[in-house]
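User:
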Amino acid sequence: MACLVRSIGMLLALAAVPVPCLAQDIRGVVVDQTGLPLPGATVHVLDGLTTVATITTQPDGTFVIDARVPGDSIVVSLDGFEKAQVKRENAARVMLLIARAAESTSVVATTEGTVSPSAPLLGAALNANTVTRLPSAHMQARESLPLLPSVIRGPDGLMQLGGARAHETPLVLDGFNIGDPATGASSINLPIEVVRGVDVLRDPAAVSYGNLLGGLMKMDSKPGTDRLAFGVQSFIPRPRFSSPGFGRLEGIFPRAYVSGSSADHSVRYVAAVEYDYERIAVPGVTQGSGPNIVEQNAIMFSRVDAQLSSRSALTIEGFVSPASTQSYGLGPRRSIEASPDVGGRDVFIGATHRYAPGPTSVFTVQFGALSHEATLSPAGTGISYAAPAGWFGNWFSTLSRTSRQYSAAVSWERTALLSNRTHDFSIRGEVAARRMTGRIAESPVHVIDTFGRVMRSVEFGAPAELGARDWLTGIAVRDVWHVTDKIQLDAGARFDHSRIAEGAPSARAGVRYSLDAAGDTVVKASVGRFIGNVPLAVPAFERYPTRMDRWFEPASGQAVRSTLLRPAVGVLRLPKAVATVLGVERRIMRNLDGQVSFTHRESSDLATFRVPSSSGLLLVESGGLGSYNELQISARRTWPRDQQLFVSYVRSESTGELNDFTAVFKGMDSPLVQPGGVARLTTDAPNRVLTWGTFNLPQRVVLSPAVEWHSGFLYSTLNNRYLYEGAPNSLRFPAFISADMVVYKTVTVRRRDVDLGVQVFNLTNHHNPRDVYPVVGTPLTGQFTNSVGPVFRGYMLLKW
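Assistant: Predicted structure:
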């Protein structure tokens, strides 16, 4: 740890060292017509008609032209977009229009979806090319997000962004919120061939982003290509290279895609389909051929872009994604009979129309429709048993649920010059209709001790029909003001309203200040109020079956306490958060950047259920609290040809409601409830170090290692009635260490490049348990289990 502290001190010292002013350096960003950054664009620096330098934009769309490079203009190009040529001094921001979109391309600064000037530079985005070069079990952009310092995968397998739970950070695809209206969460992954990149926006200052508390995950798809392209990937089944079950089929993940355009390029299309099948061996449970957790999911995505006129474009996109998991939650502490089968299906269609009445304004209209179906079916029958060794016998709940959302949004953006200073104005209005229906049935739960005696039982009322609906509206006004060459200000206000939770105003502001003319040292700060929404599962809770919770005296078997709990919904308000972010970015040297940032967030009005001490209402109401503090230090070194090294350290502290409704009921229902309160959250990992890199070796070999270390997650000890024994979340799992690596070689077969190699996960075979025996007073108390050893997998990528 002392070494780590010294390393952090050195990085801070480097951030304070002055660097000679390079006033001629040009720092620019390339964006599309909606203001989204374009990674992978090619920037040619021209001296007259001669190309003197070629640069590729970074994952955030930025590029830097060194002062020593001559030239008076630049040309920016990217497949599927019109080329843009501008003078070197006007290259701070360049917009590329979709091919054939206009007669000319202008330097503009649209704001819809644009990252705020106060947004962090490092550790916020992954483009598709980077994902394919790094260790990845399924080569999926969203699943690779834990390679960013602000994203950590919790003990429940869900990704947490900057201390915010999964339902507090929506997933946005091309401007559409595709989260499940019932829970707010989403696990959608697009085939990598149609993904431009994935970004995480932490506490964004841009008020155009709404319905969030701690940030959002933003996934952008790609338009069709100029020429016909198609291909098939990952069609070879993958055997298991580790025990148990060595040599058996572990999975197969075939993908196919096609992309192209019409003869005049006025219509572009792209379509892709992916099917994932995987048998996941469970340590200590799987013996030979089984049992396994079996996951199956597929996605069929398509997008069509039509250039209606020189200034009008229409995009229609959609996907269908069925998924299922057999033996969900199977582990050393849950038998196969107590591991239910989970299924679901997502269907989405969206249309975006963009009209550019002039070179500095864009009018955008969006319509979207989303449907999410979810089912949970027990694998066993009869009573569910919770013992000190875990769950067995059955799973208590059977549930089906369908939620739908219909949304529309209108935005107008304009760049104007006022008093010789640029203002990027935007106005956005949103409306969404949401509805949920379903059915739930529950069987009894018995809590037993080590001798098999019943200590507690929960019996449920008759099966029930579920239902809830809501209307969401929002309006936002924003101005990005370039105050001086060194200062940019982002300010705006919103008002959000919900039919079930009333309305709430919010405002945010961010500032970017360059300490020198070249922008080598930049201070960024933002403060704002964020308004989330109430998932439909919250108002539907009042229709859940009643619960009779009994405690028993083990020797006589007599009930010593009986509590009847009737689910109910109290006063609901939109959840809120106030966040302050302060950061310093430093260009330490050419192609080496460092960043130090601090985040403080206070959340309130979280939907929380209250468990009474005697018979009464099991009430869900707004009023829960949360707090998060984080210090993040990161650095990135880049080299030509997609090579880079990223290093980060995060110090954080996270507290919140133990009985946060959506967190506890994420599995559609919870078998056992008890009084809660505010405590450290299970995902609280005070220290985290993350480093990864991708390097080109001789003979067309690529080596990409990734190493992560973080403090162990928290857990609570329980008594023999499965109630907290002592302070909740007061103990920790062992520290987590994972060393992963991929190495592959590019070979050419019939004019096609093929990447062939091997991946290994948990190379050091570190003990990373995912379960613990928490019930006190047994021989197993405090023992950790369910750690996965080294996993070897093949790597193959065809380049079409």
